[in-house]
Design a protein that fits this description.
This protein folds into 2 domains: 1-39; 46-103, Winged helix-like DNA-binding domain superfamily/Winged helix DNA-binding domain (Arc Repressor Mutant, subunit A, Orthogonal Bundle). The chain is 61% helix and 10% strand. The protein contains 4 helices and 3 strands. The protein has helices spanning 9-37, 46-58, 63-70, 74-86; strands spanning 60-61, 90-93, 100-103. A 3-stranded antiparallel β-sheet has the order 1-3-2. A hairpin with a 6-residue loop joins strand 2 (90-93) and strand 3. Helix 3 packs across helix 4.
Length: 104
């Protein structure tokens, strides 16, 4: 609890530095995606947005986990993934049978 009249300068500077670092990190990611998007615009479908969120939360997912979680067919999952891979948002790692997808 803060006492009335207590100097908050140190705390405010600390909070501002943390905010600045976070904003700079976000700005660099936006710039990276902007540079990539100049080549071709990608409009995400709702299922693609959901897939990106799941990959962010889970770090990686196998193809079967993807189509099961999204309640779509294997081909449907591939149709969602292809544009994301082409745009550089998602990449496949591992071998054909044991591979998984991660955020790029």
């Amino acid at each position: 609890m803060r006492k009335q009249g207590e100097d908050l300068t140190g705390w405010l500077e600390y909070a501002a530095e943390g905010l600045l670092a976070t904003l700079e990190h976000v700005w660099m990611r936006v710039q990276k995606f902007s540079d990539q998007s100049k080549k071709k615009k990608l409009v995400l479908r709702p299922k693609q947005e959901q897939l990106l969120q799941m990959l962010r939360d889970n770090k990686s997912m196998t193809p079967s986990e993807i189509w099961s979680a999204l309640d779509i067919s294997k081909q449907g999952a591939l149709d969602l993934l292809r544009p994301l891979i082409a745009a550089g948002l998602v990449k496949r790692v591992g071998y054909k049978r044991s591979g998984c997808y991660i955020l790029a």
